Amino acid sequence: MSWRWITLAGWSVLAAAIVATELAAHTVMRRLQGFESIMAFLARSRPTRVALLLGWGWLGWHLFVR
To answer: Count of alpha carbons within 13 Å of 63, Cβ hemisphere only?
Structure first.
């Protein structure tokens, strides 16, 4: 198993955790904040929006360029 597959597995686990949290926020636990609410909170100021954009670009470049 190569490091690339380990990294992709880690990102897959993170994505699954986000999806599970989102589903739990909308169905079972109404007090739990959803992903949209968390991202809206983070995107309130310009520096965090820039950091989110750079992080999204970095992730896309490293996962989808190959």
So the answer is: 13
> Could you tell me the pLDDT band of residue 66, with boundaries at 50, 70 and 90?
low
With CA atoms as reference, report the closest residue to 63 among 1, 12, 2: 12
Residue tagged 């990294």 (tokens): 7
How far is it, in rounded angstroms, from Cα 22 to Cα 27? 9
pTM over 0.90: no
Domain-by-domain residue ranges, the chain? Answer: 3-64
Q: Is the Cβ–Cβ distance between 56 and 42 less than 8 Å? A: no
State how far the Cα of 62 lies from the Cα of 57, in Å rounded to an integer: 9
Report pLDDT digits (tens) over 2-33: 888 888 899 899 999 888 888 887 787 667 77
